[in-house]
Amino acid sequence: MPQKLQGQKIAILAADGVERIELEEPRGALIGAGARTEVLSINPDKIEARESDLNVAGTVAVDRLVSETSVDEFDALVLPGGTVNPDKLRMDPDAVGFVKAFVATGKPVAAICHGPWTLVEADVVRGRRMTSWPSIRTDLRNAGAEVVNEKVVVDGQFTTSRSPADLPAFCAAIVEQFAEARHAVPR
To answer: What are the CA-CA distances from residue 98 to residues 13, 90, 93 (Å)?
Structure first.
């Protein structure tokens, strides 16, 4: 695979309850394209992962607390889903502040499944075209987003997707979007 993301550093923001496949598959695609990734969290050391929201799926190592990082350190941001994960993130002021500040930079942000919940809490979806897991589409609409039911939606700096079933399309889209954005965002 071409190293389209060589030299890029991508933040993956997650908490306990993250849907394991929605963290691991995008991270694998990004690393495969040459990026370095860091898992940021509100929890130190490790987070509990899930499969289909209900089944325990081990743990994921945390590289750093989100409160100890700066948006300037990263070229893009990924928000994986799982019902519990974004619910915890949207209740944490450091996580919400990081997401809001990241969006303000204009750098690319990708969210899958329930991941857009944190974007709603950061109040950054108004006027954006997005998709998500069906149960949070009303939240996106109420926050001012135009919601569609498509595998992947790219709108400016945002790339969103519906579910683990859409991961192949989501992973391909974020590699492309992150590579294109590298040339658009001053470094």
So the answer is: 9, 11, 8
Alpha helices in the chain (DSSP H): 20-32, 84-89, 93-105, 116-121, 137-142, 167-184
CA 136 to chain centre: 15
**Mean pLDDT within 44-69:** 96
Q: pTM of the prediction?
A: 0.96
3-state secondary structure of 142: helix
- 129 token code pair: 């075209």
CB 9, CB 36: distance < 8 Å: yes
Catalytic residues: 114
Token duo for residue 30:
């990004």
Token pair recorded at residue 19: 């849907």
Q: Residue 104, exposed/middle/buried by CB under 10 A (0-12, 13-18, 19+)?
A: exposed
Tell me the per-residue pLDDT of 88-98, one tens digit each, with 9 for 90 and over.
Answer: 999 999 999 99
- Which phi and psi angles does 114 have, rounded to 5°? -90, -5
Query: Quick one: tokens of 123?
Result: 């109040």
Q: Give the Cα separation of 125 and 179 in Å (integer).
A: 22
Q: Read off the amino acid at residue 49.
A: A
